[in-house]
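Reading a protein record of the kind used here takes only a little practice. These numbers are not coordinates but entries in a learned vocabulary of local backbone shapes. Here is one such record, which you should read through line by line.
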Amino acid sequence: MYKTRVLLFFMIVLNLNRLQAQEIMLKADRMKGEKRRGENYQILRGSVMFEQSGSVVTCDEAEYNTVKEELEGFGNVRIVGSEGAVVTGNRLFFDNKNKTARVDGNVVLRDKKMVLTTPWIIYHTDTRIGYYGAGGKIVDDELTLSSRTGSYNPTLSMLYFRYNVVLTHPDYTVKTDTLQYSNRTGNAWFFNFTEIQSDENTILCNYGNYNTQTGQSYFTRNAALINKENTLRADTLSYNRNTGIGHANGRLWVKDTAQNISIFGSKGYYDKNRKYTRVMGNTLAKKMEKNGDSLMLKADTIVYVSDTTTQKRYLHAFHHTSLWRTDFSGTADSLTYQADDSVFNLYGKPVLWNENTRLNADTMRIFIAGSRIKFMEMRQKSFIALQEDTGHYSQISGKDMDNYFTEDNKLKSVRVKGEGKSVYYIKEKDSAVTSANAVQYKNMQIELDSNRVAGVRFYGNPSGTLFPLADFPAEQKILPGFVWDEKNRPDASAFKPPFLVPPLPAKHSNENPPQKNNGRKKGKG
């Protein structure tokens, strides 16, 4: 995520860590001794310098308490480390006994391409832990990092940034309250609200980590991934930037913003390169339509994929598939929905219910325009049953059928292609059934009014008999393939979302750092 040398600013006086056991050897243009409040001081003026373990410290003036072993330097403070890092500032305070060094006032650290600017830096020479607490900005080649506080522990190879942390890279920007980074493993941790923005997407979470070496990331506590086309939410999200493979677990919710499709589940898989998303575990898909209605879909597994060639999006549902809308519902083993063209393909004993009508075939294709069912194809072993009243069912069987619907999604006409049979009942308007017709045919077209048979047209020498209802033979009332299993008809109660989608994680208002004494001692300046 960012380069190791960014953190070298915490080692600005790294080579001063042996000073605690050594006497400071000072040089200056002018030097004199002075006693203040019973303590001896060395007063240095002009080109003050001392060198320890390869580090050279210079300033314009300095005062050194020989009893307390405290040195304060003023004006053009400059520290040059043995490895070339340079720190400049207005004031230096060095405590040899307490093993701390501090540089104040317009502090700038330069190391190769890295530049740190901050009001002050403190370094503990015994633990070698460096710290700034009044805001700092690091610029390193293509990376910029700013935070209110920052520290480095070289023993653990661990860096820690806190409060209003912003990491900017040409590929992404990270905003968080707390960022911890391991030089040793290349792993970065986020402990509070975190926002990661790139040209491709935005990631939000309240806890997570990212490995700069492997590209593997993990986000949890109400994690979200948002881009121009989709929003993905889950209890936990993991993603490998190098492979483009991601996994989601627990209260998974995916929304296609362009198609207004939402998918619920408990487990997910994502392949960025294939534009492929798979959702499993108590899955539910919901498409909001322009008229405010919702088309609901359930299955064991739902796959959402974009064709990289045509750019069209497809939703696939596998096993124990069911769908529901206020005006129709259905079941199938599997289903494919072409989102851009609003076309459903149902496979594996598909059944569609439309008011008092049950339709089934080996395969079905439903064409939807807006919120309207415009046309439906039924292929192989097609069968339609219409309930006329209690105990009487008009039936149509044939090889293939084309079905047309009214503006309010009621079955309007059926064209049967291929040899078939039909039983349909005849009645006067608003009266009971009076007669029944049993007929065989090669092709037929039936017109319906309010899902009731209103007219029939046969093609190719049909044969049949019209019976008064009382004389209709019982053995001819039911055609082979007739099923009326209304108990299996999906209803709205089976399509409730499995959980409420929580609000997006948000930055808390109490993330300002506490005010505290930074430990600076008073001195001349």
Remarks:
- Residues 1-131 form a domain with the lipopolysaccharide transport protein A fold fold (CATH 2.60.450.10).
- The first strand starts at residue 26 and ends at 27.
- The CA atoms of residues 251 and 266 lie 5 Å apart.
- DSSP finds no helices and 36 strands in the chain.
